[in-house]
Automatic annotation (TrEMBL):
Residues 151-318 form the Peptidase M4 C-terminal domain. It comes from Kushneria phosphatilytica. Belongs to the peptidase M4 family. Its EC number is 3.4.24.-. The active site is at 141, 242 (proton donor). This is Neutral metalloproteinase. GO terms for molecular function: metal ion binding; metalloendopeptidase activity. Extracellular zinc metalloprotease.
Amino acid sequence: RRALTTLNLDDGFRGHAARRQADTVHEYHATDDGETPQRHIFDARHGMQLPGEEVRSEGDPEVNDREVNEAYDDLGATWRFFREIFDRDSIDDDGMALLGTVHYGQEYQNAFWNGQQMVFGDGDGEIFRPFTRALDVVAHELTHGVTELTAGLAYSNQSGALNESISDVFGAMTAQYSANQTAGEADWLIGAELLTESVQGKALRSMAQPGSAYDDPVLGRDPQPGHMDEYVNTAEDNGGVHINSGIPNHAFYLIATALGGYSWERAGHVWYDTLLDERLTPDADFATFARLTIDNAQRRFDEEVVSAVREGWQGVGINP
Ligand code: ASN
Ligand code: ZN
């Protein structure tokens, strides 16, 4: 049985190989104006050499390949979200080029950030659709780049689950921003567009109800907890980084929906301030992150926001 939230298969190996192959990317230059993204989309043509052949770059018209155009549009929407809401110009806040490879591997059922670029598989068509379908997943991968260059949260155990959760939080907010949805209107699902009709489930993960995203004969049941009482101690998946991320995911959901309005207006700023907070060290655990969100809520907002943040964490069993 393969946990859908793990979704990394033997990605440790693949990610490593991909990283070594990705040394041609330095030739792509940053934008100097901060007004547009600098996107470069590549086609791996079902191989695993990265980045592959460049098929669409910034300003080029649409091409005759759905996944290429989706990667281009979704990376653009993610860039705009970070730029317009957090005044961040790309992954490094210095106009870094956004490199995305599509049609990676054969029936590859995942997407990832390899330290230099984003990579998207096509799925197998039976369970998964191409991973460019889901804006929240594209934004999730880009956010791994932001986290790597800011807090640098270590990718195991609680700091790894925080790293994963931050990608889901900014992925969900990007999709909500793009659809102009309030916290109350949003479905808080991650990757809803990826599952085919044959799967008994709604999405890869649910921030509103972790553990409820799918229950399928092939995939098994969504293993995510939404409370510290159900924290999963496991050696798999780097200590359950895609599993226990349900806990901070649900805290963010509780806070954003309690505050109402758009999630990025208050909860999102608290999370972004915390991600950039120099006190957030690479080995931070949930409680440390939670305390910093309270402090950042205090710095930026009023007591209503501070209370909502505190109560959100208490709702998942963390007393900051
Ligand atoms: N899609 C996964 C993620 O971004 C890939 C992985 O586990 N490395 O977390
Ligand atoms: Zn991730």
